[in-house]
Amino acid sequence: MTELTRAPDPRPHIQLLDGFRLAFGPAPVHVVPGAQRLLALLALREGPVPRGIAAALLWPEATARRAAACLRSSLWRLGKPIPLVTAVDDALTLATGVDVDFRHACALTAEPGATPGAVAVLKADLLPGWDQPWVQTERDWWGEARLRALEVLSERFRSHGDHHHAHQAALAAVQTDPLRESAHRTLVELHLADGNPAQAVRQYQNYRALLRAELGLEPSAQIHDLMRPLLRSTG
Predict the structure, then answer these.
(1) How far is CA 215 from the centre of its chain?
(2) How far apart are CA 188 and CA 195, in angstroms?
(3) Minimal CB count within 10 Å: which of 50, 110, 143, 155?
(4) Helix crossing, 181-193 with 221-233: angle to 10°?
(5) Are 197 and 191 in contact (CB under 8 A)?
(6) At how many degrees (to 10) do helices 64-78 and 51-58 cross?
(7) What is the DSSP letter of 126?
(8) How far apart are CA 87 and CA 101, in angstroms?
(9) Shortest CA distance to 91 belongs to which of 141, 41, 127?
(10) Is 186 in contact with 170 (CB distance < 8 Å)?
(11) pLDDT in tens, 29-82
(12) What gap in Å lies between CA 42 and CA 15, rounded to an integer?
């Protein structure tokens, strides 16, 4: 489980990063798939979701009548033992006090704090294995937001003289998107700053080979210029 570091919390907690989980304090709670999807949908949305839209998104293959019935069944299940969903007019939202790890993670992308735990949060995948279109939309946003945050975080660690965690953050960005040149360039710069030119050359050559194989492209002039003195010296 990947969570932001914080004190034990007795409130209901929904985990979306690295897989779905519902817990009350330290105790996990079993949730049937339909109710899982409803909680995840509401946890990902900033405001109330109309019932009709929720039903259509969660049960797209069903008729409107059947989808509405499935929604009512899920709501009934989630009303025990503590209500987790609140009805606002004809819309649904998470009940007040329900904690969501993804919302904390989103705040972290806006202002990455230079703490080791932040790297673990930002490298976590959103609902891996879920293939619903409404999840994929959020996953695409999360993918780009966390990459930018990891690069910012790497630079902040580096500016504080913490090259170990700067390297971890940049490596997490590369693992998330192996074709992202800015992350590879950061790793090259860190290797050079640490006095490891051989590692810098290997990082560059691995990236160059991957880029050629996947896209038939060459690295940009920016990273090539960074490597030029080393490449010349290695023949």
Answers:
(1) 25
(2) 11
(3) 110
(4) 40
(5) yes
(6) 100
(7) B
(8) 22
(9) 41
(10) yes
(11) 999 999 999 999 999 998 999 999 999 999 999 999 999 999 999 998 887 656
(12) 12
Rg (CA), the chain: 22
Catalogue the E-assigned strands of 67-157: 85-88, 91-94, 99-100
Q: Strands 12-15 and 91-94, how do they pair? A: unpaired
The residue type found at 147 is: L
Looking at residue 115, what is its pLDDT? Answer: 83
Judge whether residue 208 has pLDDT over 90. yes
d(CA 3, CA 15): 8
Secondary structure element (H or E) that encloses residue 176, with its range: helix 163-176
Q: In angstroms, what CA-CA distances link 3 with 13, 108, 119, 121, 220?
A: 11, 12, 11, 6, 36
Rounded distance, CA 169 to CA 114, Å?
Answer: 10
DSSP calls for 47-78: S-EEHHHHHHHH-TTS-HHHHHHHHHHHHHHH
Question: Rounded to an integer, what distance in angstroms lies between the CA atom of residue 58 and that of residue 41?
Answer: 8
Q: What is the pLDDT of residue 99?
A: 95
Start-to-end CA distance of the chain, whole Å, equals: 47
Task: Tell me which DSSP letter residue 86 carries.
Answer: E
Distance CA(230)–CA(235), nearest Å, equals: 9
